[in-house]
Design a protein that fits this description.
Elements (H helix, E strand, L loop, with lengths): L27 E5 H18 L2 E2 L9 H9 L5 E3 L2 H9 L4 E4 L6 H16 L3 E6 L2 H18 L5 E6 L13 H11 L4 E7 L11 H23 L7 E4 L5 H7 L4 E2 L9 H4 L14 E10 L4 E3 L14 E3 L7 E5 L5 E5 L12 E5 L3 H5 L4 E6 L6 E7 L8
Parallel strand pairs: 1-16, 2-9, 3-4, 4-5, 5-6, 6-7, 7-8, 8-9
Antiparallel strand pairs: 1-10, 10-11, 10-15, 11-14, 12-15, 13-14, 16-17
This protein binds pyridoxal-5'-phosphate.
Length: about 400
């Protein structure tokens, strides 16, 4: 006889709410909500001061609950990278979404078009990036299909992406981008809304002056392309772009009207290695992997968080001990283990059972490894769990 199945509790982590942070089992992805709130406020204030719109990238946190906090703090909407991320955000109540990426598969574009119509009927709006004539035609076809089927006349906002130095997606700045803007305007269901000029590589240039130079060139290319499009009698309402590493440069350029930075909210170890531009708000680390020492020898210890707990594409995590007692370097111990070694002669090997906090090298793919973020207030060591945040766009890759 088959064993009767038990209904699992809706979310066992919810039982943690109200308990001290010490009750969080390891390894776990924990957000210092006080630090996150300070980052949010600093970003909102920065954008107000520089009179730029703020559309944070939700590819970083993948959580509609966090997106709603950003909207309450003054964001105009969110960016996402994938159709499935857009669907998760809309399902979670976010009404203004920009897919800052190219989508070309007809079955995906059918989803994009359905989402655009759904948002339009609920008072929201959807936008998307394009960088080819073919992509524009396919998008227009998908929008027309839904229009024909439903009789509704929604439009989708379209940004022509230009490659301003990253060497990834984007048409070359100049005449090629002008031709795409003209092409977008041929389709009644597409509204040409401006240019996307995101320079991803510039985010991680360590020197502040070299970042300024790179974004200076990107802004020049974007401005020149805008002039050429406007010379055709086509208004360019907005130039959008920027990430956490370079956002002060785009904000100061007078060219960009919207910032897409996402990582500032959690601040990973990689971004902390950039030379800080004096104009940059002081963002704090807010995302940690709580881990525990499970084995200790004479010269090293081993903790229970390996690269199934945090992404290592941008380097290994930094060890953060709230009481400052241990200066440790983290070495890769594989999927489930981390090797910890004293960082200098005076530092000690931690003992078995010791709790440590890791600052992930790259927050976006780290979050994507977890179903839930555990939110703590009052400090990592002595604080309390106050909320569990669902990563509702986790694994939303299509
Ligand atoms: C198009 C686009 N905009 C904005 C961002 C946000 O950058 P960050 O999370 O580094 O602030 C990214 C990140 O990869 C991106 O691809």
């Amino acid at each position: 006889m088959p064993r009767p199945t038990k209904t699992p509790p809706s979310d066992p982590l919810k039982q943690l709410v109200g308990q001290p942070a010490s009750a969080i089992d390891t390894p776990a992805l924990v957000v210092d909500l006080d630090a996150m709130q300070r980052n949010l406020s600093r970003m909102a204030e920065f954008c107000r001061k520089h009179d730029v719109r703020w559309r944070p990238h939700a590819k970083m946190h993948k959580s509609s609950a966090i997106a709603r906090l950003q909207l309450q703090a003054g964001a105009v909407g969110v960016c996402v990278q994938k159709t499935a991320e857009a669907e998760a955000m809309v399902e979670g109540g976010v009404m203004d979404v920009y897919i800052s990426n190219e989508v070309v598969a007809p079955h995906k574009l059918a989803r994009v078009a359905r989402l655009a119509h759904r948002l339009a009927s609920e008072g929201g709006q959807l936008a998307i990036a394009v960088d080819s004539r073919e992509g524009i035609e396919r998008l227009a076809q998908a929008m027309d299909d839904v229009r024909r089927r439903t009789g509704a006349g929604a439009v989708i906002n379209v940004f022509v992406e230009i490659d301003v130095g990253q060497g990834r997606c984007g048409a070359p700045p100049g005449p090629a981008a002008v031709a795409l803007a003209i092409e977008v305007r041929k389709h009644p269901a597409l509204r040409f809304s401006g240019l996307q000029a995101y320079h991803g590589q510039a985010q991680h240039i360590r020197s502040a002056s070299e970042r300024r130079e790179a974004i200076g060139r990107a802004a020049q290319d974007a401005a020149a392309t805008r002039r050429l499009i406007e010379a055709q009698g086509i208004p360019v309402d907005l130039i959008t772009g920027a990430g956490t590493g370079s956002m002060v440069c785009e904000a100061a350029s007078g060219v960009y009207g919207e910032l897409q930075a996402g990582s500032f909210l959690f601040m990973d170890a990689d971004y902390a290695q950039n030379e800080r531009d004096p104009a940059q708000p002081q963002f704090e680390h807010a995302l940690f992997v709580k881990t525990q020492v499970m084995s200790a020898g004479a010269g090293h210890a081993v903790c229970d968080a390996g690269h199934k707990s945090h992404a290592i594409d941008s380097g290994l995590p930094k060890v953060h001990a709230p009481d400052g007692a241990h200066d440790l370097d983290y070495f890769n111990g594989g999927d489930e283990h981390g090797i910890l070694r004293p960082a200098h002669a005076d530092a000690k090997v931690p003992q078995i059972g010791r709790v440590l906090w890791l600052i992930p090298g790259h927050c976006d793919p780290t979050v994507n490894l977890h179903d839930r973020l555990i939110g703590v207030k009052g400090g990592l060591a002595d604080g309390k769990v106050t909320r569990i945040i669902r990563v509702d766009a986790r694994g939303a890759l299509t």
